[in-house]
Amino acid sequence: MDKPIPLAGKALRSFDCKLALWAAKMLFQEIRSHPGSAAAKFRTFLAMRRSSRIYMSKLKPVGFGRSVKMGLYLPHWPSQAMEARVRRALNSNGVHHHEQVMLCTTDECPYKCPHCFNYRKGQRPMPIQRLRELVGEIQQAGGSWICIHGGEPLVDLDRTMAAIAAADGRSEVWLATTGFGLDAGTARELKKAGLFGACVSLHHYKPAEHDAFVGYAGAFEIAVDAVEHFKRANVFVVLNTTLTQERINHGEISKTMELAKDLGAGMVEILFIRPAGRAVVGCDQLLPKGNEQALLEDAMQTFNRDARYQDYPVLLGPPYFEAPDRFGCVAGNERIFISTAGDLQPCAMVNLSVGNVAGESFSAVLDRLRSLLPRPRRELLCTHLQPVVAQRIESSEGLGLPLDPPLSLDMLRQLPRSPSPGAYCR
Q1: What is the C-alpha to C-alpha distance for residues 15 and 80, in angstroms, rounded to an integer?
Q2: Taking residues 402-422, what's their average pLDDT?
Q3: Model-wide pTM > 0.90
Q4: Residue ranges per structural domain of the chain
Q5: CA-to-CA distance for 59 and 356, rounded, in angstroms?
């Protein structure tokens, strides 16, 4: 059984050296293949190095078997997916278009999480054959990191298994799950189909509090058992946990990290309730502010950089990376979301559909989105668009999400221009 092992000391220095040599080799190969654009590629390479330093400044790489994970949303190294991603970046303007794809296989879920972005009504899932074809088109377009979502994707195991098995080495494939319906045999089947990692939702270190939050008795034990099943199947495990500003202020990051260490997770991703799905109306927990943001960054520094916590999981705090002077909002360019019915959205938290890939060309819908959101933005789209989306939901009885393409496209066309976040400025 492979175990996630944070790199330190000699192992970390060796990894840094090997990665630098590998990156230089990629650059040399691309320049040799396209000598006329050598100067542009070298400038892009330097910009990529700068972005990498920003990305890894508060993280630590994690060894897993013969590979290394650098954060959640980058493919493991070495891998075909990581190599292809770097080559695409060297041949672009440095923006990693549509590398992260979240793909839903079902809207069904027995849980009632208050922050769930999936707020759909009566939509028919894509035919399973179209789902398989779509995975291939996603990979052809450059999706190096694919996460299978729901609802709860394990509720419809046939569709979920088909989506995972349709991918090849061009993508690292993940599953976002509560653990509902998982057993040891299913975990092994998912791994055999091509699953690399699983994000398991576990929103409180106290079983009763977690069960109450998701609205399902026994959910805590289900999640804990799922972590163990995935570990035994050699699936990399990340805990997803939702923390409010109040809980951050009460020191619950540390308690969550202790739980994750005891369970043997490789990473912990702290999520925040965003104005999307069930929370699009009346959401008042958008992002940590002031003291909460400082506490989050301090916790990342402690658990990821302090030698005393070297054997703890990596702590990931999306608001840290989403800051305007770092990576901002990558919705619609680096990241996209596709609903069970085929609606293509800028991300799971932006409930706007730019088209439906069940009945329209994936490449055509993708090009439409790229023309509207060509680069990352300094402000979060979900926060910027929340008032309009919330108003539509409140004034239209029975209206589900995402909003239909005509309205969605109009809203995106009216977006004010936004400067590039700091990590993309040269």
Answers
A1: 18
A2: 92
A3: yes
A4: 5-90, 335-424
A5: 37
